[in-house]
């Protein structure tokens, strides 16, 4: 398998990383994919195609100024002193125009806090702001032990720099590399199109640097003030992970989508909000694409993978009684995509064993597979290692009894390896598509039974901006549905249901899909994205 980025040839990666790249993880908030992606891009000077070290300002002073207050869950006297020192210094630089500098600072802080996008139940150092300007891009930080241990020592004698002691920037708990992976996807997708690569980078630079400059200047001043107090430029230095099959046609399609979306007349905040939805959608499509049963390493560079690995996403448009039928089919499709992900892990273990079998005899294969499994144990936590070794011993005993039955040995190996890695896979990878889907409006309900595929208003607008090209401005409703299916596997009406084979498999009257289609048209019209003319012609247009 070819890769793009920085893969450690001696690294012990879990199977989901070997299938989907380094890495995607359930704990990453949907907005953090956008924030991490933009941070990486800004760290490379808005250039795609880089895989060397990138540099990102930590902006710890700004983050603490905005988020640390009396309601902080992890109170720490070091942070309180740091905030007090920073505020005292900032008051010297604030033009109050007759007002109290403290009051002016608090108003400015409240303004910045209004752009908060990630708070939940997190400590101040793990919260984030919406990137209305590059200076508001906040990298993840972690003060180890902050939630378990209260700092007891005196802080009066500590220097400003010592107040930040113990804060780390590279654990990657929340910035789990999903944004890095997306950066690599767009880089790979524009490898043969330097002009497109330049246009995307320039447009994102415009949105993050040339807009909202007053906010950017104030944020920069806050952070620069803290850096002058500690006499240190706090910069995060790291490099991206890696992406599998860099010639995959899906990456080129994703890059085209991003270019189409960003070529708009919307304001900067809405453009970035739509981009956040598009990134989440692309990650889900990417997961489904590589999990598809037709996946193999030989079809990606030819473009065949777009047809052969197209997902099947039936959209439930709520309405009359027969929408219940659509809902049931859509829910079963979602479960099938989950099953495909599990099957893909089993298939990966099977492929590893098959390659080994091609270079050895059946008698030697068992010992070779045991060695391979035991090497994998090195990357497993100690608590799981004993159970893992028990499984390996059982496999060894069973495989020896199979003697020369290579196929059976390989199957036993793949099942054994899946069994011992299943818990980690189900906890940290399998929930990703549901969490992202619910956040961006692709999966509903937020909680409750029978989750299925839907199209929220913002996601619908996002996809309209990607499938209707900027030069076209408008296309027929029928063409709109065709493109949604061909690009993403989205099924709404009878035409797409027929082309995908779903109509014959489901055994449902065609009228059920036709009414689903009409409900979507009404949604588009209500959202201002479609016009229905007197001759019943319907045109879908960009926002």
UniProtKB/TrEMBL annotation:
This is Uncharacterized protein.
């Amino acid at each position: 398998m070819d890769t793009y980025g920085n893969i450690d040839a001696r690294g012990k990666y879990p199977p989901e990383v070997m299938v989907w790249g380094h890495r995607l993880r359930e704990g990453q908030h949907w907005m953090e994919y956008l924030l991490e992606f933009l941070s990486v891009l800004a760290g490379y000077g808005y250039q795609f195609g880089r895989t060397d070290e990138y540099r990102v300002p930590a902006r710890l002073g700004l983050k603490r100024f905005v988020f640390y207050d009396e309601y902080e869950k992890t109170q720490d006297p070091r942070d309180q002193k740091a905030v007090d020192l920073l505020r005292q210094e900032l008051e010297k630089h604030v033009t109050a125009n007759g007002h109290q500098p403290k009051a002016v600072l608090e108003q400015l802080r409240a303004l910045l806090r209004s752009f908060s996008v990630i708070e939940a139940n997190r400590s101040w150092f793990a919260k984030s702001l919406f990137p209305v300007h590059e200076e508001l891009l906040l990298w993840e930080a972690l003060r180890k032990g902050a939630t378990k241990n209260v700092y007891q020592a005196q802080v009066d004698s500590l220097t400003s720099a010592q107040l930040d002691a113990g804060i780390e920037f590279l654990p990657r708990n929340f910035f789990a590399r999903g944004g890095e992976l997306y950066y690599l996807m767009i880089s790979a997708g524009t490898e043969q199109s330097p002009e497109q690569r330049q246009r995307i980078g320039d447009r994102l630079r415009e949105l993050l640097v040339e807009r909202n400059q007053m906010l950017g200047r104030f944020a920069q001043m806050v952070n620069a003030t803290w850096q002058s107090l500690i006499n240190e430029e706090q910069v995060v230095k790291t490099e991206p992970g890696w992406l599998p099959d860099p010639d995959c046609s899906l990456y080129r399609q994703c890059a085209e989508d991003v270019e189409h979306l960003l070529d708009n007349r919307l304001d900067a905040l809405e453009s970035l909000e739509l981009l956040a939805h598009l990134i989440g959608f692309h990650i889900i499509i990417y997961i489904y694409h590589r999990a598809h049963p037709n996946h193999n390493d030989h079809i990606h560079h030819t473009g065949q993978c777009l047809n052969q690995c197209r997902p099947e996403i039936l959209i439930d448009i709520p309405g009359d009684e027969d929408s219940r039928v659509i809902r049931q089919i859509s829910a079963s499709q979602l479960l099938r995509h989950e099953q495909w992900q599990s099957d893909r892990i089993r298939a990966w273990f099977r492929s590893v064993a098959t390659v080994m079998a091609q270079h050895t005899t059946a008698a030697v294969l068992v010992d070779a597979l045991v060695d391979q499994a035991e090497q994998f144990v090195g990357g497993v936590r100690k608590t799981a290692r004993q159970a893992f070794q028990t499984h390996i011993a059982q496999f060894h005993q069973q495989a020896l009894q199979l003697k020369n039955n290579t196929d059976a040995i390989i199957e036993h190996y793949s099942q054994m390896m899946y069994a011992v890695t299943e818990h980690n896979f189900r906890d940290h990878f399998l929930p990703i598509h549901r969490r992202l889907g619910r956040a961006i409006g692709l999966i509903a309900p937020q909680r409750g039974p029978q989750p299925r595929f839907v199209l929220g208003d913002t996601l619908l607008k996002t996809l309209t901006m990607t499938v209707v090209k900027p030069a076209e401005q408008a296309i027929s409703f029928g063409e709109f549905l065709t493109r949604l299916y061909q690009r993403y596997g989205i099924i709404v009406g009878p035409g797409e249901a027929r082309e995908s084979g779903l109509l014959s498999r489901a055994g449902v009257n065609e009228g059920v899909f036709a009414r689903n289609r009409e409900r979507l048209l009404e949604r588009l019209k209500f959202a201002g994205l479609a016009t229905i003319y007197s001759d019943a012609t319907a045109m879908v247009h960009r926002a």
